[in-house]
Design brief:
Helix content is 39%, strand content 12%. By secondary structure, the protein is an alpha/beta fold. A hairpin with a 2-residue loop joins β1 and β2.
């Protein structure tokens, strides 16, 4: 650990869990964060659900803030522009003039190449990783330089940031996580991978993150569940996330780790329909209270996540 004056400075690890399609909704029966049992989140937020009324919450363990996902552009927030904004700190829908769904187009790919989070942090000397594991077919495309247009923002910023991608061997060795947390989907697709619990996934995330300054994990099944407007599936997703996040927090040192849970747009918090929403999205910050106090007043919309990460790393 670096020496500053006569004191040792604690190295801070920042871990971001990006959960696609989760907004801060109303405390209604259409909100699965209300009707699903979430022991970890309820305890963390002192009995309050993850809804808009709870935003502004702060104590010695956590802070919940609400971020504007519409970004001054009319229409429903969408994945490509929302994620591009999160991973660059640039207002992507304003740059395009509209919200873009699905995968980034050429202007957004250029933005991600120029301003992507991993390249920006690596230029400052920070050790970074994207912990999601990829199937073998992806690596065939990677040899060709990722041709085509069906790649997520997270994949592109990893590629443009010149970070290694993890494969299924890394997953089996505990050096990566699959996007469903438990590896269940991989086995359904015919890959022989030992299934793990959400608790084990949370523990592994923290262990991996302890070797890096900045770690990113992406979970997008939440957006699928929201589009289906299926109460049972949405509830199952939230229950698994609650167990995953609870185990992660259980296994890190609060003074040495800042966990940031955020999203790109609303969706799953309102199952009365299968569309995105105009709701603000959460910035749930856990751990490193002194750092949380520094960055929370700066959080207003999706453009503020990357600057907040940079401030947190510099403070640590």
């Amino acid at each position: 650990m670096p020496l500053i004056g006569e004191e040792w400075r604690i190295e801070l690890h920042v871990i971001v869990v990006f959960i696609d399609g989760v907004g801060l909704g109303e405390p209604s029966l259409e909100n699965p964060f209300v009707f699903t049992e979430t022991p970890f989140l309820k305890k963390l937020l002192r009995g309050n659900p993850l809804t808009r009324e709870t935003s502004g919450f702060h104590n010695e363990e956590a802070t919940l803030w609400a971020l504007d996902a519409q970004l001054g552009v009319s229409g429903l927030p969408q994945s490509a522009t929302g994620q591009a904004t999160l991973f660059t700190g640039i207002n992507a829908p304003r740059r395009l003039g509209y919200h873009l769904n699905g995968f980034p187009n050429q202007p957004l790919r250029e933005l991600l190449a120029a301003e992507g989070i991993f390249a920006s942090l690596r230029e400052k000397g920070y050790r970074c990783t994207f912990v999601n594991a990829y199937r073998p077919k992806f690596f065939e495309k990677l040899k060709q330089g990722l041709p085509g247009s069906r790649y997520s923002c997270s994949t592109l910023v990893t590629y443009y940031g010149k970070l290694p991608f993890y494969n299924l061997d890394d997953l089996k060795a505990g050096k990566a996580l699959y996007m469903d947390l438990t590896n269940e989907l991989l086995n359904e697709m015919g890959f022989s991978v030992i299934e793990i619990t959400p608790e084990e996934a949370g523990k592994r995330l923290v262990k991996i993150g302890s070797n890096f300054d900045f770690t990113l994990f992406e979970y997008f099944i939440s957006d699928y569940a929201g589009h289906l407007a299926d109460r049972e599936k949405a509830s199952r997703v939230i229950s698994r996330l609650d167990r995953f996040l609870g185990a992660a927090v259980e296994h890190f040192e609060p003074g040495e780790t800042l966990l940031i849970i955020t999203s790109d747009h609303g969706n799953m918090e309102d199952l009365s329909h299968g569309n995105h929403t105009l709701n603000r999205v959460p910035a749930l910050l856990i751990g490193a209270e002194s750092v949380r106090r520094k960055i929370t007043p700066l959080l207003r919309d999706l453009t503020d996540i990357l600057p907040a990460i940079q401030i947190a790393l510099a403070a640590g």
